[in-house]
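Hi Q.,

Before the meeting this afternoon, I wanted you to have the UD2 prediction in hand. No need to reply - just skim if you have a minute. The sequence and ligand are here:
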Amino acid sequence: MHFSSNAKQFVLLLIVGIVLLLGYVHYSFFNERLNGVWFDSSNRDIPVDKDQRNTRLLYKQPSVLAGRTDVVAVTPWLAPIVWDGTFDPDLVDTIYKSMNITIATTVFAVGKYVLFLRDFLETAEKHFLVDFNVRYYVFTDRPDDVPSVNLSQGRHLSVIQVPGSNRWQEISARRMEIIQTAIERQISREADYIFCLDVDSKFHARWGAESLGRLVAVIHPWFYQATRDHFTYERRPASTAYIPMDEGDYYYAGAVFGGLLEEVYTLTKVCRNQLEEDARNSIEAAWQEESHLNRYLLYNKPSKLLSPEYQWDDKKTKTKEVKVIRFSSVVKNYAEIRPNV
Ligand SMILES: CC(=O)N[C@H]1[C@@H](OP(=O)(O)OP(=O)(O)OC[C@H]2O[C@@H](n3ccc(=O)[nH]c3=O)[C@H](O)[C@@H]2O)O[C@H](CO)[C@H](O)[C@@H]1O
Ligand SMILES: [Mn+2]
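Predicted structure with the ligand bound:
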């Protein structure tokens, strides 16, 4: 085929035109991304000080070299262990506040344990996830004895009736089943995160958003200095909570666990099934649901661990590594308060 020189020039011009057009389209697409659609900095021409008036976050510069050296603040699977001084309280709260989340908090007050509710709730209002949306779920067989406590804005309390029992072991252990059912029926529609706490306790200092994570457990205050063979895990292979002497990371307290709703749902479901399997085999684990919780967390590692600051015991003298007691079990007269001894 033969092209005249005019036609050649025309084709050349056409190609140059197409290349320029493609270049322009490409340029304006990326320009748009940079200018706002992707980075949302559409107010680029506004001077920095005005632009960032509401978004600037001022806090102490994090250090790579200086920090707590008296405690370990990370597990071998790289989950943080939350100790005072390892986080910036205002910074973590700010990050989680922007997500507008709701935290469910379950607490059981069966039989005489309703007596613990007032202190639990009043101190929670002072220290527990202050300025966050919190929904308390109080499980009790005595709804009329639930005290009325003034709740701050964004906080709500539901009372859910549950049966009583003449064995404290059963009350404690059945929490897994009852929490599982409550998540299914109600809580999953009303919250994002959940904490399941013992009622015979008080808050003494800040418990904030640093405690939130996918799956959260607390290190038991009586066992954090012990070797694993001294942990009070269930040691009989006949129980589904069995943990051999040469296994185990930490001893977790049954009084505090939490995380995302779906994670805690699975945890309670598995523990409930294993408690029921044990019951069918006429075996009760050494520390009921706490033993099953420990077994679950050994094979399903928590993504965040709370230090014993988050579960102290009023009977225990404060140790030097515990700089602040945030939540602690009160001293109770077991014979007086429990249905059986
Ligand atoms: C610090 C810690 O980890 N404590 C654990 C431990 O002893 P505790 O001495 O802390 O057990 P506990 O008597 O506090 O019972 C656990 C919880 O069950 C509820 N309750 C219990 C009895 C009753 O009559 N009414 C009632 O409502 C209540 O919410 C109480 O806080 O062993 C328990 C039984 O295995 C649980 O594992 C606890 O979490
Ligand atoms: Mn307790």
